[in-house]
TrEMBL record:
It comes from the Eukaryota. This is Nesprin-2-like. InterPro entries: Actinin_actin-bd_CS, CH_dom, CH_dom_sf, LINC-complex_assoc, Spectrin_SYNE1. GO terms for biological process: nuclear migration.
Length: 653
């Protein structure tokens, strides 16, 4: 952006022309960012439809009206009439008209948005349409649920433009959105300010305040304190902070990654894109959550499951201490783990839908208590309770989670054909993505394992298009009855979401595997030379031994071409590191991979120098041995000749 500003010449006329040009460039950049953000947002919504689909090009994929109607069905929960044809423009126009009429009935203002605009794919019109949909169905409803104990400050109310909300007022208790007559955008800003202020971060707007990434991380910390250490982030780059925030939000809050770091780390980030992304945090915060353990009762799992007959009496904070709470939670977890294991055995042969619902009851009940369990674990860690209480609770919780994972895997593998192959594929890829990547000391074995994993992973990812086709075909058949009808829609949505997730994550995982395989190949080669290097150091007790060492050196260095092999391995490592560093999504790995490359190059530099130095030493020692033997023979011959010569009389007398 600085380059554009600096290019504006002096003088009124020239300045005006260039400022207009700059404004056009800025608007074009914002449109590009909005296109990416709105496309990502729309795909997260379409994945929830009974026939999931995706949008690749926002400006052309809406022209037949089907995906637009799918989006509105997901957001409204209503089924809308449509023309099924895909090739007839008249049917396209009918579908789009249906969508626009539906939006107008919802009191959504559609200024200058008409059917031909959508059919022709006019970017500005389509971006405006999607933004109106996001505002009404996503942001307005969320903002309407916000409540603050005090009115917003004048500064907060003036921090955004004066655009007012056009959502009808709610009839229940007044919220921040209605009571103080602020727009949905301002309500969201106030919520973000309230969260960020708790960790010392100031937010003033929905563009420049988010560039450093600290605002996103502050909200994450406010929602779940253990995930972010703010002090460690202040010295990192904007993009590193942004990548960290997007990664944590996706992994821990299941918040879709709508933005890229490079979209936000600019002089004037796009406000609408940031609002769309931040609203997901508000949505996450409004999800029902179990309170702290002091105020919660740990009830048995809900009926109608006949498996949950264990009736634990409620926890009463005025009757039971922390140790007693830990004991009862441990007992509850142990009982449910046992029942869950038994249910897994009993589920063999049961219809898929029944089996899935059975697990969902367990999963929902356990998730309802997760916050309480984590709170007790945290309290035990801080308190002076016997360490055994915490250990037993943690072990029982870990065992229950392992059993739940067995259930999830079983559900993936027992899907009706051909969807079972997709479930197995997703499950296998996920296991690859979560493999332990700790440091290994046996470099040769680590290199072999890394290369094997890399080849297996590449082979897996080559199958992704086939499985995507199966998944989409199966989803399309869901409304037609048959075997597709036996898979619950919730499972289909979950499978599609996981499928799309592993495809994105796999790109970065493949880069990490390439780096790991390349790095351990270099380390294995360097390690294999250690014994030989040590043997070449001496001692040099006789000529034959030194000649043998030189032959060994030539066989290893020249015959086996050891230096060339190391250089080739280093080149592969440099390429892998370059690929890693070029990806903003792997910003957290940049320092590590760069240091690993630097250490490997330094180690090879030292060893390479020694390789050629030791050859010179060995050759010099052999030459010296030859000179020594030649001198010895000459000296011995001289002594022999001297012994035969007569001794002069003057020497004798």
């Amino acid at each position: 952006m600085a380059s554009m500003e600096s290019s504006v010449p002096e003088g009124d006329e020239g300045t005006g022309m260039n400022i207009d040009h700059v404004k056009l460039m800025l608007q074009a950049e914002h449109d590009q960012v909005q296109n990416r953000t709105f496309t990502n947002w729309m795909n997260t919504q379409l994945a929830k439809h009974q026939t999931p689909s995706t949008v690749n090009d926002l400006f052309t994929d809406l022209q037949n009206g089907h995906r637009l109607l799918d989006l509105l069905e997901v957001l409204s929960g209503q089924q809308l009439p449509r023309e099924r044809g895909l090739r007839n423009p008249i049917q396209w126009r009918s579908n789009i008209e249906t969508a626009l009429k539906f939006l107008r009935k919802k009191s959504i203002k559609l200024v200058n948005i008409n059917v031909p605009d959508i059919v022709e794919g006019r970017p500005t019109i389509i971006l405006g349409l999607i933004w109106s949909i996001i505002l009404h169905f996503h942001l307005e409803e969320l903002a309407g649920s916000l409540e603050f104990s005090r009115p917003p400050s004048v500064e907060s109310l003036c921090s955004l433009d004066s655009e007012s909300s056009w959502s009808p007022p709610r009839r229940h208790s007044p919220s921040l959105h209605t009571k103080w007559k602020v727009s949905a955008r301002k309500a969201l800003l106030l919520w973000a300010q309230d969260k960020a202020k708790k960790v010392g971060i100031e937010i003033h707007n929905f563009n420049t305040s988010w560039r450093s990434g600290l605002a996103f991380l502050a909200i994450i910390r406010a929602l779940q304190p253990g995930l972010v250490d703010m002090e460690k982030l202040r010295n990192r780059t904007n993009r590193e902070n942004l990548e960290e925030a997007f990664r944590i939000a996706e992994q821990h809050f299941n918040i879709a990654r709508l933005l890229e770091a490079q979209d936000v780390d600019v002089v004037n980030p796009d406000e609408k894109s940031i609002i769309t992304y931040v609203s997901q945090f508000l949505q996450f915060s409004k999800q029902p959550a179990t309170g702290e353990w002091e105020s919660e009762e740990l009830a048995p799992l809900a009926q109608p499951s006949a498996l949950f007959r264990n009736k634990l009496r409620p926890f009463h904070r005025d009757q039971e201490d922390l140790t007693r709470k830990a004991e009862e939670i441990t007992e509850w977890l142990s009982q449910n783990e046992k029942e869950l294991s038994e249910a897994l055995v009993q589920a063999v042969g049961v219809r898929y839908e029944e089996k899935y619902q059975m697990f969902q009851r367990y999963d929902a009940a356990i998730n309802d208590r997760k916050k309480s369990i984590m709170a007790v674990l945290s309290a035990l860690k801080k308190a002076s309770s016997p360490p055994g209480d915490r250990v037993r609770l943690k072990q029982t919780w870990t065992k229950l989670r392992a059993t739940m994972k067995e259930w999830e895997v079983a559900l993936d593998y027992s899907l009706p054909p051909p969807l079972d192959s997709v479930g197995a594929w997703v499950c296998t890829v996920e296991s690859h993505l979560t493999e332990d990547s700790t440091e290994e000391l046996d470099y040769e074995e680590a290199a072999s394992r890394a290369h094997t994993n890399l080849q297996m992973f590449k082979a897996l990812m080559e199958e992704n298009k086939v499985h995507l086709g199966i998944l989409q075909d199966f989803a399309a058949q869901a409304g037609a009855g048959g075997v597709a009808q036996t898979v619950p829609q919730q499972k289909m949505e979950e499978l599609l979401r996981r499928f799309m997730g592993v495809r994105v994550t796999a790109k970065h995982h493949g880069v990490r595997l390439e780096f790991r395989a390349s790095r351990y190949s270099v380390l294995a080669l360097l390690s294999s030379s250690t014994v030989r290097l040590d043997s070449w150091r001496g001692p040099y007790t006789d000529q034959a031994k030194v000649e043998h060492l030189l032959l060994d050196w030539k066989g290893f260095v020249e015959g086996e071409r050891f230096p060339a092999r190391v250089e080739a391995a280093l080149d592969r490592l440099r390429k892998a590191v370059g690929e890693c560093v070029s990806r903003a999504a792997l910003a957290g790995d940049h320092e590590h991979v760069t240091n690993c490359l630097r250490e490997a190059e330094s180690e090879w530099s030292e060893r390479s120098k020694f390789l050629w130095d030791v050859k010179e030493v060995l050759e010099r020692v052999i030459t010296t041995w030859g000179l020594y033997r030649e001198a010895g023979r000459s000296l011995w011959g001289w002594f022999s000749e001297a012994h035969k010569m007569p001794i002069p009389s003057e020497v004798l007398y």
